[in-house]
Design goal:
The complex is a heterodimer. By secondary structure, chain A is of the alpha/beta class. Chain A is globular and about 55 Å long. Chain A is built from 9 helices and 10 strands. Chain A starts with a strand and ends with a helix. The model of chain A has no long low-confidence stretch (mean pLDDT 93). In chain A, a hairpin with a 2-residue loop joins β1 and β2. In chain A, the strands form 2 sheets. A 6-stranded mixed sheet of chain A has the order 6-7-8-3-9-10, sandwiched between helices. In chain B, 44% of the residues are buried. A 6-stranded mixed sheet of chain B has the order 6-7-8-3-9-10, sandwiched between helices. Chain B has a 4-stranded antiparallel sheet with strand order 2-1-4-5, covered by helices on one side. In chain B, α3 packs parallel to α5 and α4 runs antiparallel to α5. Chain B is globular and about 70 Å long. Helix content of chain B is 36%, strand content 26%. Classes of the chains: A alpha/beta, B alpha/beta. Chains A and B meet through α6, α7 and α9 of A and α5, α6, β12 and α10 of B.
Chain lengths: 244, 309
């Protein structure tokens, strides 16, 4: 049995002369929390868009949940969840309308939507706010709701793009509790973050530098490999290596 | 000495939400003052009021003797403001944006080039690129240049580093320190606790109130009780184990460790905790007393605020 949920092989994406993703190869194992780190402009978003089936690669191959990103993107979309800091929920719809809208897109039945939706309201203690517009919720609540909705259809894999950007330290921790619960339910988590304490919460991390994978391994392995005490120092070492 | 920027009892309400509740503070000419708090704490509302873009329900504010109420036109022409949302022209190039901002303030890039030289050198290779196509860190650097190009008397930066990677954030703060040293006071907000340490003074803002305002050093000194760190790969298990023990004020994960706050670190209590961990964890761990970080202090203050309600 193949226990790899993401397999990327010599993947490249060019924009004109510029290789945003430059010949990267890596794998993500089922059930893992995989941290996808890198500086702004390193190519994380481009790579993620390819893996989500939203952008075609220029060369190389990648499979997600066993489907090829170039030829089977529709099957991929049905098997993954996605949330980002920038776009996740519709502000002008109520909490409940957002839940049922997304669940509908994932082709859940009315009965399934009702059951899963009520479970979300209960878990997040949002029952009272069911008919409130999402725009009126504090950011931390929105992010937790967006995450719950991103996995409402029990996908095999969820992509989280800077889910905790700008969120307060207590809510960030509550968010990571949710990530761990999702992982315990066998949902693989693929997450990007600029908070480096969160890198430590991942089973494995990769660090992208200028379109390439600069380093990959468990947080502990990377610290040992670079002989430093923190992930920040690993990233700094990679950035300095690039400058030289 | 007169403070350069002052706010007295500023309040603002949106419907039933009290966005700002009686906020007062002062900023000296040689200071970087940071407003640290979560999204929705009231930081942006405060920045918009101080930059005359929003009228408070109550309270007064002054910048170099000018009132935010009566002298708003004068203030607008002599401060720099970088709003939280990227608001440069995405379809204009880096250079075009900079020239545009210099021109509307009646200045030119050449006139004040020295102001931005340090930061702009990094942007120059991308001068012809459209602002919308820049990476997050570069966008923030350009926005800072545009806020500086007219040589403002004071700078207001609302979450300039949200979404910016760790190394770029460090560089960005190096720039801010230089700007302060050139004689421009800076009021800045951030959700990153580590940035607090680079401010001269910090205001911790939560639900529209300033919970505490002091130098980072004093805030850390005021941490109540004792802080222990458990270093283990099994953080969630460790957290669950200590959660059940008596006399623990709080338990939070902190990257590669778990932080516990206790009234005191009596050797007997430490032994008790170590024994419980030995029983429950399957692998080796380390337990030791730690110096609190700024984030520990913020969590403690937020916890207190929640208990007082």
């Amino acid at each position: 049995m193949n226990d790899k949920i993401v397999e990327v092989n010599e993947l490249t994406r060019n924009f004109g002369e510029f290789a945003a993703v430059d010949n990267i190869t890596f794998e993500v194992t089922k059930g893992e929390i995989f941290g996808f780190l890198g500086a702004n402009g390193a190519g994380k978003t481009t790579a993620m868009r390819i893996l989500c089936g939203l952008l075609a690669p220029s060369s190389g191959t990648a499979t997600v949940c066993g489907y090829d990103v170039a030829s089977q993107s529709e099957q991929i979309k049905l098997n993954i969840g996605y949330m980002s800091q920038k776009f996740s929920l519709f502000n002008d719809l109520s909490v409940w309308d957002n839940i049922s809208f997304y669940a509908g897109i994932y082709r859940m039945s009315t009965a399934q939507i009702k059951q899963a939706g009520h479970q979300i309201l209960q878990e997040l203690e949002l029952g009272k706010y069911k008919h409130r517009l999402v725009s009126s919720l504090p950011l931390g609540w929105k992010q937790k709701l967006a995450f719950a909705i991103a996995i409402i259809h029990k996908p095999q894999l969820v992509f989280l793009d800077e889910p905790t950007g700008g969120v307060d330290p207590i809510t960030r921790r509550a968010f990571w509790d949710m990530i761990y619960r999702a992982a315990a339910e066998n949902i693989t988590v693929f997450v990007t973050t600029h908070y480096l304490d969160e890198a430590e919460y991942c089973d494995r991390i990769s660090i992208m530098v200028k379109g390439k994978i600069g380093a990959i391994g468990t947080p502990q392995e990377l610290k040992e490999q670079f002989r430093v005490q923190s992930i920040y120092d690993v990233i700094l070492a990679l950035a300095r290596g690039e400058e030289q | 000495m007169q403070p350069f920027i002052s706010a007295t009892n500023i309040s603002k309400r949106y419907g039933t939400t009290q966005a700002l509740d009686n906020v007062s503070f002062e900023v000296g000419k040689d200071e970087i003052v940071g407003f640290i708090g979560a999204d929705g704490a009231g930081k942006s509302t405060l920045f918009e009021i101080m930059t005359t873009l929003l009228i408070p329900d109550a309270g007064e504010g002054y910048i170099n003797g000018m009132s935010i109420d009566r002298d708003y036109q004068k203030i607008r022409s002599c401060i720099g403001f970088m709003p939280g949302r990227f608001s440069l022209y995405q379809d204009l190039s880096v250079e075009e944006n900079l020239r545009f901002y210099a021109n509307i303030f009646g200045s030119s890039i050449q006139e004040n080039y020295a102001m931005i030289e340090g930061i702009y050198t990094l942007l120059k290779p991308f001068g012809k690129r459209k602002a919308g196509a820049l990476s997050g860190g570069m966008k923030q650097k350009l926005a800072l240049c545009c806020a500086l190009i007219h040589k403002p008397l004071a700078l207001f930066l609302d979450e300039p580093t949200t979404g910016v990677d760790a190394v770029s954030r460090t560089e960005f703060w190096d720039n801010l320190i230089q700007i302060r040293d050139s004689g421009i006071p800076i009021v800045v907000s951030t959700p990153y606790m580590d940035e607090a340490l680079r401010c001269d003074r910090v205001a911790m803002i939560h639900e529209g109130k300033i919970m505490d305002m002091d130098t980072p050093k004093e805030i850390i000194k005021a941490y109540k009780g004792c802080l222990l760190g458990i270093f283990t790969g099994e953080r969630y298990l460790a957290k669950a184990i200590v959660y059940r023990l008596a006399g623990i004020e709080s338990v939070y994960t902190f990257g590669d460790s778990v932080h516990i706050n206790l009234p005191t670190c009596h050797p007997q209590i430490m032994k008790q905790i170590a024994d419980s961990l030995k029983q429950g964890l399957s692998a080796e761990f380390q337990l030791r007393e730690l110096n609190p970080s700024f984030e520990d202090c913020f969590l403690q203050l937020m916890g207190q605020a929640a208990n007082e309600r």
